[in-house]
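Researcher: First entry.
Model:
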Amino acid sequence: MSKDDDAVEEDTIDAAAAALQRVRLAATEAGYQPGMAGQFERKKKRPRTPKGDAPVRSAGPQPLGDIFSKFLAQRGWKEPVAVGSVLADWSSIVGPQIAENAKVESFENATLILRASSTAWATQLRLLTPQLMHKFNEVLGTGVITKLEIKGPGGGKSGRRNRHGWS
């Protein structure tokens, strides 16, 4: 070993010894004496129980999607968020042609109400109901939408579409 290596080793040993000396001094000032280890019991940790809206924590990292899903379920927001995602992605879920001719009117009690642009489209949508329900179950999860109600173009104040198409 060179002279420089000896100096580095001495510094390391001296730093460790100095740190040990500081810990011993702090323990003595706190009232601890050598040989007291194990004489005092630590407080036992109580098992964690979920309380109301308190988030459930677990050891280690978790996928953000799982945490977000648990959060939505705890708050009772799962279905409204799922339906909101349908409204946001309506054309990508049902396709551009159906999206152009069927608008979501409302969602209540797991029933999705669609308004068709014409009676012909209302009939077509009624025939497509099983395929649409299957698609909704894929995208939202089973049971979020349990009934699909199709309405014709009437239903406004005058019962007719405005002359410029959809309002």
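Researcher: Second entry.
Model:
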Amino acid sequence: MFAPQFSQALPRRFAALARCAVGVAAAIGLSTTAQAAWEPTKPVEFVIPAGTGGGADQMARLIQGIVVKHKLMKESMVVVNKAGGAGAEGFLAVKDAKGDPHKIIITLSNLFTTPMATGVPFSWKDMTPVSMMALDQFVLWVNDETPYKTANE
């Protein structure tokens, strides 16, 4: 019953992802005067606190491709996956690089859940949000044979 709606939503989700990536890439290339003064002096790292192939990884690689295709930066943009510890490795790498504008993180809800589940010395408050690039829908699933039909149950 739910699967057809989910599968129909995927093309829309990827289209929305592409629109967001184009917007981010355009923002990188068409920044305001104050921001335009900054140019990377070394490769920019897109840190992904997850393995390859997931949503954050796909978003980073899409943006990377647009930046390269349209020559929006003189320096390269490198996607670095740091999935260890449910993403803690990636979060700590960016936290430890405080003040380094060459290190950016793209993350999903694990920004909140990893510190709660692992006790890693990191909080979402250690980061500065720049832009919401996509909105994921999270679904709670149970085995069809269980009596549970709502989250309250």
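Model: Note on the second entry: The chain is about 40% helix and 10% strand.
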